[in-house]
Amino acid sequence: MKKIFENWNNFLTEEQSVFTMQLVIKSEPGTKLYGRIFEAIRGIEGVTVIRSMKKIERDEVGNKVMVLSVRFYVNPAFMPRYVDDLRRAISRLSDADGDDIVSVKILQNPEKMDDVFT
């Protein structure tokens, strides 16, 4: 039985690829995005890099709107589910004062980054 498990592990390879995508995050007017929110996003499994693509803007009711670029590792077969889980995880975040993320939308679909390590 032990030999079966050893051989099985040789066939289980979860090749992960690097993807990048852009998100639009809308938050309550008082939310401090650059503190706890950015740290929490970086803490989500698979996320390696986030960066702001533009200056924070405000919508018609005063909510903060920010465009983020997110780089993450994921097995390509699970990428659609990962993106949905990532969007949902970000939408549940709040800062230290309790100000929440109002919405998270995908601005640019994930793209595989083939040249990351070349």
Relevant terms:
alpha+beta; 118 residues; single chain
Describe the structure.
It is built from 3 helices and 5 strands; from the N terminus they run αβαβββαβ. The chain has 118 residues and is an alpha+beta fold. Strands 1, 2, 3, 4 and 5 form a 5-stranded antiparallel β-sheet that branches. It is elongated, with a radius of gyration of 18 Å. It starts with a helix and ends in a 6-residue tail after the last strand.
Strand share of the residues? 35-45%
> Helix and strand string, N-terminal first?
HEHEEEHE
What characteristic shape results from the CA principal axes? elongated
Give the total of beta strands.
5
Number of helical regions: 3
Mean model confidence by pLDDT: 87
The helical percent reads: 25-40%
Rg over alpha carbons: 18 Å
Low-confidence runs of at least 5 consecutive residues? none
**Structural class of the secondary elements?**
alpha+beta
Q: Report the biggest beta sheet as strand number plus sense, adding barrel if it closes.
A: 5 strands, antiparallel
Distance between the termini: 41 Å
In terms of quaternary structure, the protein is single chain
